[in-house]
Amino acid sequence: MFKKTSTRLASVMMMVMLALVTVLSGCGANNDTQASAASESPSNSVVESASAEPDQSASPESNKLVVYAALNEDDIIQLQKKFKEDTGIELEYLRIGNAGETSTRILAEKANPQADIFVGGSVEFYEPLAKEGILENYVSPNAKDLDAQFNDPNGFWQGWYMGVLGIILNTERFEKELAPKGVKEPTTWDDLLDSNYKGLYITSNPATAGGGYIFVADQLFRLGEEKGWEYLKNLNTNVHHYTKAAGDGINLTATGEFVIGMSWAHDIVKSAKQGYPIKVIIPKQTAFEIGGVGIVKGGGNTENAKKFVDWLLTKPIGEMNTQMSNRYSVRKDVAPPEGMVKIEDVDLVAYDRSKAAEMKPAVVEKFTQLTAK
């Protein structure tokens, strides 16, 4: 009896051991297969890693674009709507106020970029960001037919519109308060030195406003260093105060708080069309801005940012921007804005954009000291 039992136990033990060997062999074979597959297809592990921690900048499925805009609110809203219609991409924007403050924010976010695009404001504000390595190098195929002055030779910013500086005049207050004194409407920058404008003139701060800086540089280029600073010193006695943004002076003059100011001609015309008692005067030897757009390096939606730059440079968008903002297009096949003179008929100063960008820190510092006295 005991012999039969022992024989049965031995048989059972043998079956168990065979089963274990089979299972272990199978597991080993499966592990070898997985290791082999992993070594043959390294992209599999990359995909799994990316799935665990998604990299938005590499995602081809992105349907979003984050824009920091130094444009008027109604302009960026219209661009937002049209871009969605044309591309299906959702444009989220943050309007900080002016190009200086916008570029400062982008610089502060260098280690953790929040924007994909910086749009609006003069290209002078893009140069420092490019030098800091904050802008992505990208040359749109739509830029090939543009005049060279509108394309950054290093490929970090792109010009897409033009604006010229002008004088804004509140015609009601001028006719009531100054015309009776024999004061004539200004036609040149030098006319602003008339003491009758003291406390009635408003302009923008070159430290924060692109228009403010270009105006200062304009005087230095047209008069030379010494006479230019003398002019700015004398003009300062007539200035009531300096605003943060170039457009602020338009609102304050249009509503009658001031008689005269300096700003972008296209914005002045836009306000005049709304029925305000104002007019634009484009003086001789005025300066112009090249309005820029640049891609923020390390943003979450770089491919969509490139699509945005390409889109801005198309003829339909050039025409749309001209109609809604009265800015000149950089495209030769887009007509000048209604109510604005042709750009070729404007008497422009010999404006050295590279020198203007290079001398800006020193000029702003000197201007700040001059106006603080």
UniProtKB/TrEMBL annotation:
Listed Pfam families: SBP_bac_6 (PF13343)
Alphabetically ordered keywords of this record: Signal
Segments crossing the lipid bilayer: none
Database matches in CDD domains: PBP2_Fbp_like_1 (cd13544)
InterPro entries: Ferric-bd (IPR026045)
Domain of life: Bacteria
SUPFAM superfamilies listed in its UniProt record: Periplasmic binding protein-like II
Annotated stretches, region: Disordered: 32-59
Keyword Plastid on entry: no
Coiled-coil region(s): none
Signal peptide: 1-25
Name of this chain's protein: ABC transporter substrate-binding protein
Lineage, opening ranks: Bacteria, Bacillati, Bacillota, Bacilli, Bacillales
